[in-house]
Amino acid sequence: xxxxxxxxxxxxxxxxxxxxxxxxxxxxxxxxxxxxxxxxxxxxxxxxxxxxxxxxxxxxxxxxxxxxxxxxxxxxxxxxxxxxxxxxxxxxxxxxxxxxxxxxxxxxxxxxxxxxxxxxxxxxxxxxxxxxxxxxxxxxxxxxxxxxxxxxxxxxxxxxxxxxxxxxxxxxxxxxxxxxxxxxxxxxxxxxxxxxxxxxxxxxxxxxxxxxxxxxxxxxxxxxxxxxxxxxxxxxxxxxxxxxxxxxxxxxxxxxxxxxxxxxxxxxxxxxxxxxxxxxxxxxxxxxxxxxxxxxxxxxxxxxxxxxxxxxxxxxxxxxxxxxxxxxxxxxxxxxxxxxxxxxxxxxxxxxxxxxxxxxxxxxxxxxxxxxxxxxxxxxxxxxxxxxxxxxxxxxxxxxxxxxxxxxxxxxxxxxxxxxxxxxxxxxxxxxxxxxxxxxxxxxxxxxxxxxxxxxxxxxxxxxxxxxxxxxxxxxxxxxxxxxxxxxxxxxxxxxxxxxxxxxxxx
Length: 507
Prior knowledge:
By secondary structure, the chain is of the alpha+beta class. It has 15 helices and 18 strands. The chain folds into 3 domains: 2-44 and 178-268 and 482-506, D-Maltodextrin-Binding Protein, domain 2; 65-171, Dipeptide-binding Protein, domain 1, CATH 3.90.76.10; 270-480, Dipeptide-binding Protein, domain 3 (Roll), CATH 3.10.105. It has helices spanning 2-18, 51-60, 108-118, 156-162, 169-182, 231-240, 251-257, 293-302, 305-313, 342-351, 368-380, 392-400, 423-427, 438-449, 453-469; strands at residues 31-36, 65-67, 74-76, 79-86, 89-94, 134-141, 144-149, 190-196, 200-205, 222-227, 245-246, 263-278, 358-364, 383-389, 406-411, 473-486, 489-490, 505-506. The strands form 5 sheets. Strands 11-16-12-15-13-14 form a 6-stranded mixed β-sheet, with helices on both faces. Strand 4 (79-86) and strand 5 (89-94) form a beta hairpin.
């Protein structure tokens, strides 16, 4: 009865919205209206870790290379060719005739400045894992550069293609991260028109986008992104025609939207992995119960992951056992698997000194229904978990400060198809590493830097097996992504969770 009432309320809300002044959206205005549920902390590509930031990276900026999502091949983008001079040196010939959105000409100075600036720890780039492998970048000519890596780094091309946006050096030196966050400037298929912090971002087609780009020429004139946290409001906006495209739609809502004649619903698995992140290292010396292995193992046995996946996550999602996504290089599921066994969970708790369980806080910012289900499973074995629901950035900062016992975390690896982007990020001694296991860190350092694929696989496997044995985290499932959009739109979702609006068009 409650679900029927909620859907009826959505219908009423959409009718109400229709009576309010219409926002510019849709084919008639050549403006794609997009809704996103989390406010972006910064539009600057290097100062946010939200998925929307990755999406904007591919639309506003370009990288030296581009990874073809269909073939996995690296294609020339701002670079026209590249080669390894030796195992720690890459040389790139740069594309001539490319201009930034502000009219500045692109050349080697922009590449050298960008890569040297972001790889300097003093500048505080949010995801150090993405940049800390760079030793330096050198100019060899106006259209030629050399990138030196600190160690052998076989995944360099993957990171260069995925997350290393090139900035206009004169502009960025003048305005810095704060200025780039308000008025972003790149070479990409869309240019920033307006950024209203916490409310909206407006992009316009780059009419002068270089024809040789593997991304192709954009078709849609404008993209207007608004931040609306409530999914019911998002759905009402879509149903009323004030929005054209939404994602992260709960499965029960997606199933209803799929029956509506003017809306297309698309479901896809993604590289995003949800996991319980434990403070196993006791970073702040709080002597939390989760510092004990048997407690972490008990939690891992207490949760019926498959039932939660089937009833709440649904769709194309899959159960994950390792701290990585299955298609990433080096990932393996040949690890300890924690089957649902509440009796064993209670036994482990008693052995750990908590026969009557304990109380704890459980932090999260996505998947509230799934968190509530997990809270119920924990309660059944005596663990009273209280949900602390916050914005992502707030939870991230508390985790890094060692103030969170357990969080409902998730990671899309920046769509990097290499285990270093997940396993290395959370267990390689970074700010996000809540295990701080010297042996795991050593294995990951070898895996991340060896140029021998078999050595890499062997050491990732060793690290992943120990992570599972020590229950440093509990991988849950991959994210099922439900997209809902107007039938006037040609759009195709991809498993790397990067909607490519520069390839979309109106019907």
